[in-house]
Design brief:
It is built from 14 helices and 19 strands. With 433 residues, it is of the alpha/beta class.
């Protein structure tokens, strides 16, 4: 019987709730006991004094490329990046080549993840066949094969009738529908947020209303159908207000935001003009939007922080801003950014931040994990809140090195990532006792 004891760390488990110095025992891949002076003969021991021990972090929104776009990312590289970033599980969007719209491809993806990955991979199936927005995929088959939700991300569903049918059909299988995005007809060819900075740089912008229109429509359809709606990568104050009103009406909606939208604004393009690392979708918004997202994070309107990892290759970014691909490498920076820029200045406290990265995501999609209760999966993220180092894309495990945070010095990094009782990542320079 394999066993691992994480001894003497500050255990923060919002699912219970628990915040105390404890030991955590993992046996046969599952949490066996949490308490003081836990005994386990023959167990491997990890001394975690001075470190924070949390339920394994779950990323709700990552693109891994494989199959078909291995030039951007592979399952092997992407899952190693996730482990280095403190994530024990990632939910993988269906925009692969071919699109993950059938059970066969879902099973193939899961088999590849089991063979080559180091963290858990939860596939998200395509909402429509080929992500073409015309015909629904077979949701029952997708769920049986292992899909945890359906989505046509990163695009919004342009046809409201199709989205209504998707919410109704997914409800039969208790599958969440991941939606959101923008009404592209408001700003065709837009490459950034519409505002003073886009005017200054002469770049085509998209207004925040483009996201809000889709958000309001999706919420109304969720109310009509009673379906489970999850809004991905919310980026505007208008969307936050719409979600808040929808929850007051009892609509079944959850929502996430990504660190780059919580910490940056479109002013980043003025500070580094035409730096394609800042070209992301949704675009970096204004200061009012950023402040609204932070308020929503604190009050509970947002349920999770998701990395929004959307890898690109070098050639796709090494061109003019208008022609560059949207995307960034985010799996390895999401957690340290949150620790340094959200926890550090006390914009959120530690239990709330851990909830947004673990039990919150698990609850949103009904995933295993997100808890250190006995019987839960033996997935643990260990944090070193004192570890200080700079973001260096050359050290990324991800194949994608594009990030607007290159050179930022951050305090607080993952020290260890444990998946099913096995160490998937360990930082030898962390503050080990």
């Amino acid at each position: 019987m394999s066993a691992l004891v994480i001894r003497g760390g500050r255990v923060v488990d919002p699912s219970r709730p628990l915040d105390d110095v404890q030991d955590v025992l993992i046996e046969d891949g599952r949490i066996a006991e949490v308490g003081s002076r836990v005994a386990a003969r023959g167990a491997e021991v990890v001394e975690a004094r001075g470190l924070v021990v949390c339920p394994g972090f779950i990323d709700l929104h990552a693109h891994l490329g494989e199959p078909g776009r291995e030039d951007r990312e592979t399952i092997a590289a992407g899952t190693r990046a996730a482990a280095a970033g403190g994530f024990t599980a990632v939910c993988v969007m269906p925009d692969t080549l071919p699109v993950n719209d059938n059970a066969g491809l879902t099973r193939s993806l899961r088999d590849r993840a089991l063979a080559e990955g180091v963290v858990r991979v939860h596939p998200v199936g395509a909402l429509s066949r080929g992500r073409e927005g015309r015909e629904l995929s077979e949701y029952g088959d997708l769920k049986d094969a292992g899909c945890v939700a359906v989505s046509d991300a990163p695009e919004s569903v342009s046809d409201p009738r199709l989205l209504r049918r998707a919410l109704e059909y997914a409800r039969l299988f208790d599958l969440p529908v991941i939606a959101g995005g923008e009404d592209a007809s408001l700003a065709p060819g837009a490459v950034m947020n519409e505002g003073p900075v886009s005017t200054l740089l002469g770049l085509r912008g998209t207004p925040s209303a483009a996201e809000a229109l889709v958000t309001e429509r999706d919420l109304l359809l969720a109310e009509l159908t009673g379906g489970r709606l999850h809004l991905a990568q919310v980026s505007t104050a208008l969307s936050v207000a719409a979600i808040r009103r929808a929850r007051a009406r009892g609509i079944r909606v959850t929502a996430e935001a990504s660190p780059h939208h919580l910490l940056l604004t479109d002013a980043a393009l003025k500070e580094a003009p035409y730096d394609t690392a800042t070209k992301v979708r949704p675009p970096l918004r204004g200061q009012d939007d950023k402040e609204a997202l932070l308020a929503a994070l604190r009050e509970g309107t947002l349920d999770a922080i998701a990395s929004g990892h959307a890898p690109t290759n070098v050639d796709e970014k090494n061109v003019e801003y208008d022609l560059a691909a949207f995307g960034l490498s985010a799996l390895e920076t999401a957690v340290p950014l949150c620790l340094d820029r959200l926890l550090g200045p006390r914009l959120v406290d530690l239990p709330r931040l851990v909830e947004l990265l673990s039990s919150g995501p698990a609850r949103v999609l009904g995933l295993p994990g997100g808890s250190l209760a006995p019987g839960s999966p033996g997935d643990v993220t260990v944090l070193d809140l004192q570890r200080k180092r700079a973001v260096d894309p050359a050290r990324f495990a991800s194949l994608c090195r594009s990030t607007p945070f290159a050179g930022w010095t951050l305090r607080g990094w993952p020290a260890m990532t444990i998946v099913g009782g096995k160490v998937a990542f360990k930082d030898p320079k962390a503050s080990w006792a």
